[in-house]
Specification:
Blueprint: H1 2-77, H2 85-91, H3 103-109, H4 118-148, H5 154-193
């Protein structure tokens, strides 16, 4: 009799324990599902934000590159004439610099590490690196320009054109990276949303 009573208590205890374990497992499954859903929504929102930034940067950079190309053409056209570099810059509408925003990398990395798409991360790092390269090339251009603003020799104009070409080359690389991101973005948001 005593053994049956102990066995009944053990069965009751195991039954209650099983119910509690099942309840905890169900709660964990639901919680995990909600977290995954939130992570997907956050990642989609992150990519949308980055896409808007890339689109704005792309548009600004394209416009600036057109003006820089006109300046480069003007410098080359008048390279043999005794016109100071400063006058040629004024004639072309000045030196343009694109106001590039690179908050996308920081925003995206705030996401949970298990949700990060490393291809997107790689593109964002490349965009950031190219933006820094543009800044460095532009700084070299400015450093050359200040002491040579009134120079009118062919050599000084060709050196200025070389520095400006370096800026344009890095901007072209960044434009291609933006275009690649926009192409891959469509695939990525479609895959994340599924």
């Amino acid at each position: 009799m005593k053994t049956d009573s102990i066995m009944n208590k053990i069965r009751d205890y195991l039954r209650e324990l099983t119910i509690v374990i099942i309840g905890v497992l169900i709660a964990l499954i639901i919680s995990n599902f909600k977290e995954n859903n939130q992570a997907k929504k956050y990642q989609i929102a992150s990519i949308e934000t980055i896409k808007k930034e890339v689109t704005a940067n792309y548009s600004d950079l394209k416009g600036v590159m057109e003006k820089q190309t006109r300046l480069l053409d003007t410098i080359k056209k008048y390279s043999n004439d005794h016109i100071p570099i400063g006058n040629l810059i004024s004639k072309s509408g000045g030196i343009q610099i694109a106001p590039l925003s690179n908050t996308g990398l920081e925003f995206y990395t705030r996401n949970q590490i298990n949700s990060i798409d490393f291809e997107i991360m790689s593109m964002l790092i490349r965009m950031n690196s190219l933006s820094e390269l543009i800044d460095n090339n532009m700084e070299k251009l400015r450093d050359y320009l200040y002491p040579n603003l009134f120079a009118d020799s062919e050599k000084s104009k060709m050196l200025f054109a070389m520095y400006l070409s370096n800026v344009l080359e890095s901007e072209t690389q960044l434009i291609h990276t933006y275009e690649n991101f926009n192409e891959d973005y469509i695939k990525t948001t479609h895959n994340i949303g599924s």
